[in-house]
Amino acid sequence: GGSAGGIAPSIKVRDVVAGMGACTDSNYAAQYNLPGSYAPIASYELLERAVAAGRAQGVDVKVGNILSSDHFYLDDPSSTATWQKMGVLAVEMEAAALYMNAARLGKKALCLLTVSDLPLTGESLPADERQTSFTQMMEIALSLALPA
Q1: Spatial distance between the Cα atoms of 15 and 54, rounded to a whole number of angstroms
Q2: What residues are paired with 6 via a beta bridge?
Q3: Which residues pair with 65 in a beta bridge?
Q4: Which candidate, 18, 35, 6, places its Cα nearest to that of 99?
Q5: Catalytic amino acids?
Q6: 118 pairs with which residues across the strands?
Q7: CA 123/CA 144 separation, integer angstroms
Q8: Which helix (H) or strand (E) holds 15?
Q9: pLDDT tens digit string along 39-55?
Q10: How do residues 66-84 score in pLDDT, each as one tens digit?
Q11: Which residues pair with 16 in a beta bridge?
Q12: Please, are residues 3 and 13 in contact by the beta-carbon 8 Å criterion?
């Protein structure tokens, strides 16, 4: 879990986002010598459990594609808008590598995020509210550690 910059018009500051898939501008997958492009995805089991846990806690977890970028704040705002056109919900920095490592090791992974800012509008979560807002995401994540 961590923070994310929300880029889809439907995403607001404080939203909890689950990365069903993770696009990336990184060359991380090159190490696997694959004969094509790899599509990093979450464990469906963990994703389904996270959505259910969020629902039980009264949190509407937003599920969709996220962008794992080498640069959380992209220098060229038009590139963020281009990812937005493809339906990407939010930008963060680790999910694609996490999903690839998990796939390679035969493990399950899911990236849960709290939206801390909206790069395309400049809105951001005040520092004193970050801890409270991140609690919802952490409670969902912790519930996944318990037996299903």
Answers
A1: 11
A2: 90
A3: 21
A4: 18
A5: 117
A6: 123
A7: 30
A8: none
A9: 999 999 999 999 999 99
A10: 999 987 666 777 889 999 9
A11: 114
A12: no
Read off the amino acid at residue 119. Answer: P
* DSSP output for 25-82: SS-GGGGG--SS----B--HHHHHHHHHHHHHTT---EEEEEEE-S-SS-S-HHHHHH
Q: Please tell me whether residue 2 adopts helix, strand or coil conformation.
A: strand
Is there a contact between 44 and 148 (Cβ–Cβ < 8 Å)? no
Q: Are 136 and 114 in contact (CB under 8 A)?
A: yes
Cβ atoms within 10 Å, residue 142: 11
Q: In the numeric block, which tokens belong to residue 38?
A: 């790899």
* pLDDT tens by residue, 101-123: 999 999 999 999 999 999 999 99
Kind of pairing between the strands at 2-6 and 90-92: antiparallel
Q: State yes or no: pLDDT of 94 exceeds 90.
A: yes
pTM over 0.90: yes
Are 101 and 26 a contacting pair, CB within 8 Å? no
Cα 118-120-125 angle, rounded to 5 deg? 20
Q: Is 5 helix (H, G, I), strand (E, B) or coil?
A: strand
Amino acid letter, residue 148: A
